[in-house]
Here is the input.
Amino acid sequence: MNYLLSPPFLIPSIALILLSFILNGLMIKAMICEWAHRRRLSPRDQILLSLSASNLACTILDLQINFVFESAFVVRILYVWETFAVQCRCWFTAWLSIFLCIKIVSCNHYLFHLCKLKISAWVPWGLLGSMIISLFPSFPAFWNFTIVCQRNATGELSDLAENLRLRANVPYFVLLLGLFLLPLLLVLLCSILTVASLFRHVCRLTGQGPQFTHSQMKAHVKAAIALLTFFFFYLFLTMVDILMMFEPYFTNPSILLTHTLASLFFAPVQAAILIAVNPQLRQEVACLLPCWLLPEPRPFSPST
Here is the structure.
């Protein structure tokens, strides 16, 4: 893996890792300070804390897998944990999209109103359920890990072990593919609903019949931009992760480089978008960056 240490790859990787540590660390610090002040976290803050923690975990695991440990045995153990962390990040992103969509979009349907009333109570259980669901994609990685251990212990794979591996790969591949695509579809659905609501709002304004305030208009725009950006980056990362299913032992250098850069790029970009649309997090960033780099922070009003 000496090609990972080449300057064209190493320099942007270090920059992305440092940026991820700073931005996601600021988000975690802001959520901890909020909890210390109020002794509770709003559903949105719970999602942001979970998302920033999973992003930070993915960055740390990518750093250890690609730049710290050289032992194939240790790398494969870390790969199992990385699979869990990546899947958690996917589901937390989906939950953030669902939360923003339900809170921002206006709809007169009974079920939508019920979701608006119940979403705050659903979030903690949804995050816990997402972590449990995220354990399932770790099974293929753990299976491959045990096969490799068997190969190392016996010197070569037996015909029985090889047949078991081939049989297991098909259902596990379907499971892994489905669990990666389901959060992506949820993000896509929430993005479509948010953009459609924004379009209806613009049509009402141009029709001289405004039914929304200016603050609601800005909330629609911010939510639509955030969700669409999440979707496109998430789509690219999911495609790379699907390719990695065919190369679980990182035998293809080009796939490894693409996957590593995409994973390192997603964490700081997602954190930067969340900070840009959240006044409280912008105030935390303003403590480290010059004031002229950021817009003037506004007072933060916690949402439920």
Q: What stands out?
A: The CA atoms of residues 230 and 270 lie 7 Å apart. The chain has one domain: 2-287. The radius of gyration is 21 Å. The longest helix spans residues 159-206.
